[in-house]
Design brief:
12 strands, Nucleotidyltransferase, domain 5, 3-stranded antiparallel β-sheet, alpha/beta, single chain, 289 residues, Actin, Chain A, domain 4, 3 domains
Length: 289
Amino acid sequence: MDKKLEECFGRTPGNIVATRPLRDGVISDYTVTEKMLKHFINKVCGKFIFAPRIMICIPSQVTEVEKKAVIDAATQAGARKVYLIEEPIAAAIGAGIDISKPCGNMVVDIGGGTTDIAVISLGGSVVNTSLKVAGDKFDEYIVKYIKKKHNIMIGERTAEDLKVNIGCVYPKIQDTEMDIRGRDLVTGLPKTLTVHSSEMLEALIEPAMMIVDAVHSVLERTPPELSADISDKGIYMTGGGCLVDGLDKLLQEKTGINVMIAQDTVSCVALGTGKALDNLDVLEGKTSR
């Protein structure tokens, strides 16, 4: 998200509404999503003569209705043809994994709205799941924790700052701290509070364990031959949400499998989508609508 736009959340006057057109990985506001896509198309293509072909990432377990909403929004925004690709497959391509071989690769993509977990072989998902627990949910749990323990209300932006700077899901060797400001729910006045990383561990361990349990569930449903491949190669983590301190260590401890964070993890899905465009002939029959 654009940094200037992100700073607007929680700070706009009554005549301006800052909204997120995509929530939990799917469209929450069709009209705004269409206008957003139209803006991006015009920014990239300028005044194009022919309508462009567009590839869009979707969570691995979206419904047909949600898929149609994405396709319709892109078509109305000016796309000639719309291709859909599952996020874990795009993330795997962006991480540099060769997904065309007959061997198992496990990808855990933790984005803003959803966490997508998939075992990929021969260019497709063998076993996958998607849960609406990711970066945004971490922020919600931090807001709830600060409210419950300190009786102070903070905004989403402050919660994200806490997550990025001192957030952790695995005990740190040295406890760190950060000063935040919020509204005291008793007096109604602004108040400054010092929060420690040990408190962030308490706030974030619950959603982190939801992701670990989902990974465990996918591993239980994975065919034995692919399980052996994953045991040898390890689990690849992508997406901005996996950068929460200690998440890779927690997953490795609970599964007993080596966990690796992909290079340029925030951009893996976008980079993978771009690389997939080089193989449109392969995707033509599989993902076009």
